[in-house]
Structures are given as C-alpha cells and as structure tokens.
Amino acid sequence: MRDRNETPKIGVKLRHARQVLGLSLEELGARIGLTEGYLSKIENDLATPSMAALHRLVQALGINMNAMFGTLQHNASEVFVLRQNERPHMETGHRRSGNHVVLEQLVPSGPEYLLQINVHVIEAGGGSLELIRHKGQEFGYVLEGSVELLVEANVVALEAGDAFYFNSELGHGYRNVGSTTVRILWVNTPPTY
Question: Following CA atoms 154, 101, 11, 45 in sequence, which dihedral angle do they give, to the nearest 10 degrees?
C-alpha cells in the first residue's frame, strides 16, 4: 500500500523520457518554452512545475500525466478497486503563485486503459490558468466548491453538482473562485493528459 501523503518524484521519470528521445535540456526547453535551468530543477525534484508546464513537458516527451504517478497495483481480478486511503496523488504548481493543484489518481494507466480519471483538488485562489490544449475529450463533475471553468473565451461558473464536457483541443483551464477547497472528478479520453 502506498502512503497517500507521499508525493511521487517525477524528475527521474521526466529525465528518463527526455534521454530516451535523445534530447538535451536546452533542446527540450526550446520546444516548450521553459529554461534549461528550470527543467534541470524539475528533473532533480527541486522545483514543482505548474499543471500547464507539466502538461507541455509530458506532451513533448510522448508520455502522459498518469505516467508521473507510478504504477498502481492491478491484480488479475476483473474489478479494479482503489480504496480512498490508497489513492496516489501528485502536486503541481505552488500555492503562492496561485497555480497549485493536487491530482488524485483513480484508475491505473497503461495502453489498455481508455480513460484517465483523477480528482482535481484546488485550494481557494488556486487553479490552472494557463490554457492547455491536447487531443481528446473531457468530462467533469464538481464534487465540492465553486470553480470557474475557462474554455477558449468562455468562462463558466460551476458549483457542486454541476457537470461539464468539452473538446480537449480547445484551450482550457480553471480557477477556484470560492473560499473553500474545490474537488472535481475529471475524466479524459484518451489518456493523453
């Protein structure tokens, strides 16, 4: 069983993916608009990228965000069960800069899985404000709190109990506009995010 409070070390995974592609830090940085020094800090787990920066990184490296979580133990059973206290999580961004988001993984990742499902936990004032684009479709259900969903020029206010759906190729992000933590059940297909 994995400690729910243990944050996965993503640096070594990113470094490995970059090296497999034969890219230098400088080349990768030029492709995604991040400095070589910042990428080095990320690879050495000395800096935590925002969700948008991490998304650009994994996309450029040909992997997806779920690969950063590590492996969930999946037995041969026909039913996969993940208990609440065993849920892996990953933190992105920083509280001070307002782009802090915690992702809680709900399903394993791998080529046999057609969905990527996480719970996004966004503290008051936080969010993913830099618009992200990728192939696929997305669905969300607001479990708790108030959030603004940004999809291209659309700003949609959502409350607990509201659901949304959009094409992932449209620029999208969100922000917690309330005073309490927001939790969103978020589904992507295919799991490219």
Answer: 130
Give the pLDDT confidence of 62-79 residue by residue, as tens digits: 887 766 765 555 556 677
Residue 150, number of CB atoms within 10 A of its CB? 20
Query: Which among 63, 96, 4 has a CA at the least distance from the CA of 54?
Result: 63
| 154 backbone φψ class: left, alpha, beta (φ>0; ψ -120 to 50) | beta
HEC profile of 8-37: CCCHHHHHHHHHHCCCCHHHHHHHHCCCHH
- Please write down the HEC assignment for all residues of the chain: CCCCCCCCCCHHHHHHHHHHCCCCHHHHHHHHCCCHHHHHHHHCCCCCCCHHHHHHHHHHCCCCHHHHCCCCCCCCCCCCCCCHHHCCEEEECCCCCCCCEEEEECCCCCCCCCCEEEEEEECCCCEEEEEECCCCEEEEEEEECEEEEEECCEEEEEECCCEEEEECCCCEEEEECCCCCEEEEEEEECCCC
| Digit-coded pLDDT (tens) for 83-120 | 888 888 778 877 777 778 888 888 877 767 788 899 99
Q: What is the pTM of this model?
A: 0.71
